[in-house]
Amino acid sequence: MLMDGDLGKVASLRCEGGTGKSRTVKRQLCRAEKESAVVVTPKQAAQKTGVSDSLVYEWCALGLLTHYRFGKPGRRGKILIDETELEAFLAKCKQPGRPHEAAPVLKHIKLN
User: Fold this and answer.
1) How many CB atoms are located within 10 Å of the residue 46 CB?
2) Can you tell me the distance from the alpha carbon of 72 to that of 25, in angstroms, rounded to the nearest whole number?
3) Of the candidates 22, 9, 68, 24, which has an alpha carbon nearest to the alpha carbon of residue 42?
4) Strand pairing category for 78-82 and 68-70
């Protein structure tokens, strides 16, 4: 979870915008806080969902999981995931259970 003290640490980083313009992380974090008060790192998201960190990074890279990416293109940066987006992604991944089928009658085994 992002704490108040962390805002000062990441405020000097730059964020790559969709139009190629850079915006400060503080603006992006404010937008994230308006949508949801809780953002988590990929490691925290992995712990919450019970999967590996690398799988969460893969979901982000493939565009399956909506996230905020801070930093310059091609360089190391910071990824934050809105907790409500994580929950929505998990809900989309939910598979319906199959109905329980009766066991087939075994013809080759004789039961006494």
Assistant:
1) 18
2) 12
3) 68
4) antiparallel
